[in-house]
């Protein structure tokens, strides 16, 4: 699990561990810092991921911000676009060769359901 807020990641993981005890997530799940608003953070995450793992079976890119006030990322891009698109694009590209090492790799891009509002 990658998250810019490690406490929220811990809380989410603990909730999953309690909800799904048979998955043995205490041994299988890992929490790593990642701030998609920063290309440096994305690159550092990919470096650390490579040091820890030899493949990536599934990469879930979850949209992180929506309708935020105008602000720029650390790299000078509009916050929502930089976080939800550029950060995910860079991360996917940096892990792509590790995805190809999996027998059945998946990249899942998740967005909000706001497109359904009328």
What does this structure look like?
This protein is α/β, with parallel strands linked by helices and 118 residues long. The protein is built from four helices and four strands. The strands form two sheets. Strands 1-2 form a two-stranded parallel sheet. The protein is globular and about 45 Å long.
Count of individual beta strands: 4
What's the story with the biggest beta sheet? 2 strands, parallel
| C-alpha end-to-end distance | 33 Å
Cα-atom radius of gyration = 15 Å
Strand order across the biggest sheet?
A: 1-2
- Mean pLDDT, all residues: 92
What is the percent of helical residues?
A: 40-55%
Low-confidence stretches: none
Main structural class:
alpha/beta
Tell me the fraction of residues in β-strands, as a range.
5-15%
Compressed to H and E, one letter per element, the order equals: EHHEHEHE
Helices, by number, come to 4
Shape: globular
């Amino acid at each position: 699990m990658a998250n810019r807020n490690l406490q929220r990641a811990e809380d989410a993981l603990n909730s999953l561990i309690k909800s799904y005890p048979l998955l043995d997530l205490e041994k299988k799940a890992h929490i790593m810092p990642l701030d998609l608003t920063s290309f440096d953070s994305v690159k550092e995450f990919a470096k650390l991921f490579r040091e820890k793992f030899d493949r990536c079976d599934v990469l879930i890119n979850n949209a992180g911000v929506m309708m935020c006030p105008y602000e720029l990322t650390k790299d000078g891009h509009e916050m929502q676009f930089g976080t939800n698109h550029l950060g995910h694009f860079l991360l996917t590209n940096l892990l792509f060769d590790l995805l190809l090492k999996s027998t059945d790799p998946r990249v899942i891009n998740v967005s909000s359901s706001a497109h359904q509002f009328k």
